[in-house]
Amino acid sequence: MNGTNSNGYSSDAMRLAAVGLSLIREIFPMQQADSDEAAKLRLELMAELASEVGEQRFVKAVRDTIKVSHRRWDASVARIREMAGLRYTPDPSPAAKAWALVTQVFIDHCRTDENGNYRLEEKIVNFDGVARVFAVPELSPAIKRAIRSLGGWAAIAEAWPEFHGAKYRDFKELFSEDEPGPRMDSLQRVK
Fold first, then answer.
1. N or C: which end of the chain has fewer CB within 10 A?
2. Is the pTM of this model over 0.85?
C-alpha cells in the first residue's frame, strides 16, 4: 500500500473509499447532497473498512451492496460492512446482561414448593449415570432488588413465556447497578 494520510489510512484505502462512494452516488443520484462533515465521515469510515478488509473484499462488498439496495441510503456504511463479513454488534447493556442471568436462573433453578411458593434450588443433571449438581448463581443486590420490585419470582413465572419481554421492559426500568435501593419513580404507588 502507498503512504498514509492525516487520518492514518493509506492512500489506496482512501482511493478505494472514494471510488466506492462515487459509484453509489452515480447509481443512486439524489438532489440533496451530504454536508461536508457527513461526506468526510463517510469517506473515513469507508477508508477504514477498505484498510480492514483489503481491496478485493471491499470492492465485492460495495458491488453486493449496490445489488441489494433500492436507494442511496440503503447503501450505508453499515450494510457495506455486513457485505464484507463484518457485522457490528454492540455490547449488551448491564440490564440486558442481568436479565439474561435472571432468565437463566429462572429456567434452571426456580421451583415451587408444596404450597406453590417459588424458591431457588440447585439444579441436578444426570450425565451418563452421574449426577452433577449446579449451584444457584449469586445474584447481585441490584438484581435482587429489581426482582423484588417486579413482584418476585412468582411474577416472572406468571409472565413466562408469553409476557417475558414485557417483564424485561419493567426490569430495565427497575435495575440499576449503582443505586442503593429501588427507584421510587419506577415503582407504582398504591393509594
1. C
2. no
